[in-house]
Each structure stands twice: as structure tokens, then as C-alpha cells.
Description:
Keywords: Coiled coil, Membrane, Transmembrane, Transmembrane helix. Residues 285-312 form a coiled coil. This protein is an alpha+beta fold and 319 residues long. The chain folds into 2 domains: 12-94 and 147-317, no CATH class; 100-143. It has helices at residues 12-16, 31-44, 59-62, 101-120, 124-142, 206-223, 236-241, 248-261, 266-277, 282-312, and strands at 20-29, 46-47, 50-51, 53-56, 63-65, 74-85, 88-97, 145-172, 175-196, 316-317. The strands form 2 sheets. Strands 1, 4, 5, 6, 7, 8, 9 and 10 form an 8-stranded antiparallel β-sheet that branches. Helix 2 packs across helix 10, helix 4 packs antiparallel against helix 5 and helix 6 (206-223) runs parallel beside helix 8. The longest helix is centred in the C-terminal third of the chain and has 31 residues, at 282-312. It is elongated.
Amino acid sequence: MSSKGQVPDYTRQDLRKATRFVEGDYKGINPREFYRRLKRRLEEFQVANDFKYQTFGDQREDLNILSENVGEKTGRVEGRQVAESDWELIGNGSLEYKPYGPHGALALIVGLLVTLVGGLAQDMRVAAVGIVAVLGGGFLYFNTDTGSFPLVRRDVIRVLMTGEVSERTIDDDDETRTDIFANMSVIYAGDTLVNVYTGDMDDMSWTLRFALMNQTKRWYNSIVAKEYRKDVSDGFFGYLGAWTSRSVRSHRQPIEQLQADFENSFELREAYTDTLLDELAPDVQDQIDEQHDELRSELEELAEEMDVYVDREGLEPTA
């Protein structure tokens, strides 16, 4: 989905690059009725006794039927729908960081100043204190640890309907009316997306939050074009400057903004997902693979039920 909740523009080639996809061809379909039924069926999927997906797509905006006026015998139809699940925790990623990097940077600066003052004053005791501070600061600055951060996943189904429409005259209960029907090809594509979860950053140490913010920038920079890359301030002066922004909000907001940037490009969202999946433990990656299989089952079930719907309504599937 786009950041404004609009259905994005995607092609059949885009959907064939999805993690899983299923295709179906139908003949003699009323595209509006098919679109409404498809939306209703997507909303009927359940998980843990609750509805799984929220759908996006409106006939007025996302189902385009060209040349459908009476007297114009043929035209084209193109429709899109998207269904997204809620975000769900899937596990923790690991991150090597400097738990006392800012403390060490500050101690190094203070130690150097004290050593300089002691040297100028020819006071060896003051200079010795400064040297101890420098050594201690260096130890703190270069010390590393491994922290964990939560990741969440979301399942997304995208549907594309394309084909030709034509007018037909229908005799119904001694009444003759004109309606439109289409020969359509429909592709159902499913993907699992992953994000860094920022909801419980209050429970993290501020140095871990700082490291996670910078790591998210690195992931972002590895995906986007050069002109859109962000500055990563994790050098010595970056750690020193970290003292000025230690709040949860100052670390959470940049991560959320970076992840929101991907909302306007499904291709970037998939690349970001692949990057984050590399941070997961092997057993969690196995769970994601199982989820991909479940997602394919949902797509197959969706396609089969639309076939049943077409048969029941007297329409004719061609495949």
C-alpha cells in the first residue's frame, strides 16, 4: 500500500515476481460483480478466530472500464485490489553495538582535557587522573556487545484483473436489458513483509536504540538510490553527539520515517524484507518459509472459490 492508503499501480510482471502467485482466466464475467465478490472473499479470511485482512480498493478508483457506454461494443477492463494483515511479532534480530560508546567518547574527551591541564600546570597527579580517564574511556568506547530487537511481519495479497469487455443483450423475466461482460485474466500474488518493531523501544537501553537507528539507516542506504541515502552518525563524534538526543522519540521517529518511505514502493519493501530476514535466527526463517506456504494455500483457495462463484453465477471459466 502507498503511505496514503491508495492501491498502487502494478503490472502482471510485477506480481509474477511475488513470493507466491496463482493465475486464473475467466470468460463472460461481469467485472463489477466479480470485483465486489473478490473484495468480500478477501475480507472473509480468518486467523485465530479473527478476520485476517483489511482490503483496499474501490470500484470508482481502482476498477477502470473503458468504453462501457451503450453503443460502444468493446473496451478494456483493469482492476486492482490489495489486502493486508496486521503486523505480527515473529522473533528477534541481533545487532552488535557499543553499549558504552557514548560514555567512552565523553570519557576520552574529558581525560584528554584533564591530561592537558595537568601537563600545563606540571601537576602529575592531575595528569595521571587524565591518563586513567583516557584509558578507561578507550576501553568503554571500543567495548562491544550483542543486543536484540523485535521484528514483525505482515502478509499482503495483491490482485490484478485485466481483459476485454463487451456488451451483451440479456433476456431476463420477459425483460431485455444490456449489460457488460469481460474475458479476464486474474493474477493473485502474495508476499510476506517484515519491519523493525518500534512499539517497545522504551524497554531498550538508549545506546541500543541509538545503534538500531543507525543500523536501520544503513539498511535503508543499501536499498535506495545514492541521492536518497541518509547520514549515519556512528563515528566518534556521532557517539559524542548522541548525548544530546537520548529520548525514545528521537530514536523511534527516524526508524518509523525510514520504514514509511518504503510504503510507496513495493519493490523497496520487498528488498527491505529480504535484508531483515538475514538478521533472523534459522528457526525463525523456517517459520517464514512455512508462512509462505500458507500464503500460497490462501491464494489457491481464493482462486478456487472465485471459480466456484463464477460457475454458480452461470459464468464460464476458461481455465
